[in-house]
Amino acid sequence: MTGGRKLLGHVALLLPPFGWLTVFYLGSLFILLLSAFWQVDSMSGEMIHEWTLDNFRVLVTDETYRIIAERTIGIAALVTVTDIILAWPLAYVIARKVGPRMKLFLLVLVALPLWSSMLARIYAWRLILGHDGVLNWFLRSAGLPEQSFAFTNVALWIVFTYLWLPFMLMPLISAIERIPASLLDAAGDMGATPFQTFRTVIFPLAIPGMAAGSVFTFAVTLGEYVTPMLVGGAGSEFIGNVVYSNVGVSGNIPFAAAFSMILLVVIGAYMLVARRFGAFDGA
């Protein structure tokens, strides 16, 4: 009797969040998938609830949308790799080379940009990379040629790398901290150089942390549309921008849903790969 009451208590406790997840999250994904097979009447603008593959056919045959998808996935992958490279030195120093007070201070510095508005940080980079921005002022003062990164894919890469770097740093720091010091001592006792210790001990054991951080950086970059609007140029559209314009401007929700399915498929495949590398292993 007591066991039955305990089970009912657990069910009552879990039912509201799981019900919310099922109805509002999984339900919305199901409706998204369903609407991708509908279409909009070109004359009346009304949605036609008839099964068709026309939206997916346009995505496959139209080179413009293929280029946008390749650009989105390519920049997301590049940002992820760049964040991994930039995060390693700082993560290693925070996890292994400083005392508790300095570690806390550096962690606060890492998290500090997250306390400000994302839009404020994006506009700050527009001021830095603009033609008359801080970077060109510094280059002119140093007698160096000016740059023209503003409103290009290079600017997108720089801003995205900056925005999501903390999300790569945090799991990587945690992964490095979990490596037992005894393993590093054993490698040193066996005559391994610092680089050999890093290559054969530290790096392999930190792969789950890199995989977890990459899920954040890759997935968030993949679904972005605000940053390309503010920092990118005419050839910097992401999948999110096409979805936004089709929902908010042209009202072609089925086509937007079909293009969104590419994001879901790519993110789902990436998460499966990241899972094989331990991204979702318990801390």
From TrEMBL:
Predominant place of localization: membrane
Domain ABC transmembrane type-1 positions: 69-274
SUPFAM superfamilies tied to this protein: MetI-like
Lineage: Bacteria, Pseudomonadati, Pseudomonadota, Alphaproteobacteria, Acetobacterales
Subcellular localization: Cell membrane
Family, as annotated: Belongs to the binding-protein-dependent transport system permease family. CysTW subfamily.
Residue stretches spanning the membrane: 12-38, 73-95, 104-128, 148-169, 201-222, 253-273
Name of the protein in question: ABC transporter permease subunit
Pfam families reported in the protein's UniProt record: BPD_transp_1
Recorded superkingdom: Bacteria
Topology in the lipid bilayer: Multi-pass membrane protein
Key words, A-Z: Cell membrane, Membrane, Transmembrane, Transmembrane helix, Transport
Native source organism of the sequence: Acetobacter conturbans
